[in-house]
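User: quick one, fold this
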Amino acid sequence: MDDVEGKVAVITGGASGIGLAMAHRFAAEGMHLLLADIEEGALDDAAEALQAAHPGVTVRTSVTDVSDAAAMDALGGDARDAFGTVHVVCNNAGVGSGGQMHTLTTKDWEWCLGVNLWGVIHGIRVFLPMLLEQGEGHVVNTASMAGLIAGPFMGPYNASKFAVVAISETLFQELRISGSDVGVSVLCPSWVNTKIHDSARNRPEELRNPGAEELAAGGGLSEMLRGVIEAGLAPEEVAAQVLSAVRSKQFYILTHDGSEVAISARADAIVGNEAPPFFMPQ
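Assistant:
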């Protein structure tokens, strides 16, 4: 999709972080936007800022829980009502969840997999038929370096992101076999300066695990994570790489220098029947 001007992008998790940065980058190229997010106030603020910065584009919003099938069906309806179709689908909404395996409850897994994995599944299910019908478009699934190599204390997150990579690779092969012009990319960043360390602000009450949250706070894990993330790559740099990948149909989007070294180390360990190497995203 070399020419994106006038095309439509739907972005989940579009009110902040990488999602909002992608929205600004796409809008700068003349793309119209449908932003979905669970945070209504932040979504309204994002739309206002986007419209002010890019008065020539149309910005629509939808308060959406991506883990909910009916809500994602409604988002698809919103896209058709507002624009008739979409061209770029960014399944980007995500949350951070972790802790030592023996401290995790089913609620920890359900919350993280609901947003990070089911959000991508629903996004593909709802929007891919539109892209295939028109014979044009691109899907961007936000995974992580944690979807290519697994570090400790991130079980639910790692599982969700590995699954997103696998789904994306599967979709790539199916599109290639069918000869479709629809493209797909999987975004695998390391640390990016977003609010993912504060994901619990949107965690449903019925899926909370107060014990694990208190343990993380008491051990200083939350503050350490906040510091590492705030020192991470600017979301705008990631957004620029995403736009380039959409235009060139690049599949893997590795945003950080050194990612290839970690991936190669894991692959070498698998082939050599060795223990997995220790890895924490840089």
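User: anything notable?
Assistant: The chain has one domain: 8-271.
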